[in-house]
TrEMBL record:
Residues 65-156 form the Peptidase M15A C-terminal domain. This is Peptidase M15A C-terminal domain-containing protein. It comes from Tenacibaculum jejuense. The chain crosses the membrane at residues 185-207. Keywords: Membrane, Transmembrane, Transmembrane helix. The keyword rRNA-binding does not apply. It holds the Pfam family Peptidase_M15_3.
C-alpha cells in the first residue's frame, strides 16, 4: 500500500505562518481569530481542502502573511465582500483531483478570491499597473491568475525575479454559440442519415432485382 504524502509538505518556507485552528484541547470549536479586518481564520479553514483521512491531522493551517495583506488590500480597493474560494490544499487532495501537486496552495502561499466586480477591477489593475497593482507588488505577490469566465482571481507569493508580477488569464473555452452550432451540425447529420439509409436500401433492392433479370 502506498504511503500517503505528508499533510504539510516539508518545503513550506519559514515565511509561512501556521495558525492553530481550534481554540483548545480537545480541539472543539474553530478559533474566532481575525486574520485581518475582513478575513477570519474560520473563513480560511472553510476554504481549505484536505482528504477525509487527513482531517484528524488538520489542526493547523499554513498561511503566508503576505497573502492576507494582499487579500485585504484587494478587499479595501473593491469595497465589497470577498469570498475565499480556496486557501490551503493538501498534496493528497491535489493528487486525488488528478493535479500535479505543485500548486502554491499546497505551500500555504496562495488564495483564490471571488466577489462582485473583482475580476473587472483586477483586470484593470494588471493592465494599467495602477496603485493597487503597485501595492500588491510591494507586498510580495509574484503571480496573479485571472479567471474571467470562471469569475475568480488567484494570487500567490511565488518568487519572482522580474520587474512585474507574472499575470496569466484564463483561456476562453467553447462558448454557448459553439455548442449550439455543434448540436445543429449533429442534428443535420442525423437527419441526413435517416434520409440516405432508406434510399441506399431501396437502391440495393432494385439493383439486385434487375440483376436477376
Amino acid at each position: 500500500m502506498k504511503k500517503p504524502y505528508p499533510l504539510y509538505r516539508p518545503e513550506i518556507p519559514n515565511s509561512v505562518v501556521f495558525h492553530e485552528i481550534y481554540q483548545q484541547i480537545p480541539f472543539t470549536g474553530i478559533s474566532n481569530k481575525q486574520l485581518s479586518k475582513n478575513f477570519s481564520l474560520k473563513e480560511a479553514v472553510d476554504a481549505a481542502f484536505v482528504r477525509g483521512f487527513e482531517k484528524s491531522q488538520f489542526t493547523r493551517i499554513p498561511i503566508d502573511p503576505r497573502v492576507i495583506l494582499a487579500s485585504q488590500a484587494i478587499r479595501d480597493a473593491l469595497n465589497k465582500p470577498i469570498k475565499l474560494g480556496s486557501t490551503f490544499r493538501s498534496m493528497e487532495w491535489e493528487f486525488y483531483r488528478k493535479r500535479p501537486g505543485t500548486s502554491r496552495h499546497t505551500y500555504g502561499m496562495a488564495w483564490d478570491l471571488s466577489g462582485d466586480g473583482l475580476v473587472k477591477m483586477m483586470t484593470e489593475a494588471v493592465n494599467t499597473k495602477n496603485e493597487l497593482y503597485r501595492r500588491l507588488k510591494q507586498i510580495g505577490i509574484g503571480f496573479i491568475q485571472i479567471y474571467p469566465y470562471s469569475n475568480f482571481v488567484h494570487i500567490d507569493t511565488r518568487p519572482n525575479n522580474t520587474q512585474d508580477i507574472q499575470v496569466v488569464f484564463e483561456k476562453k473555452k467553447g462558448s454557448g454559440l459553439d455548442k449550439i452550432a455543434l448540436m445543429d451540425a449533429l442534428s443535420f447529420v442525423a437527419v441526413l442519415v435517416t434520409i440516405v439509409t432508406p434510399l441506399f436500401a431501396l437502391g440495393n433492392y432494385l439493383y439486385n432485382r434487375f440483376k436477376k433479370k
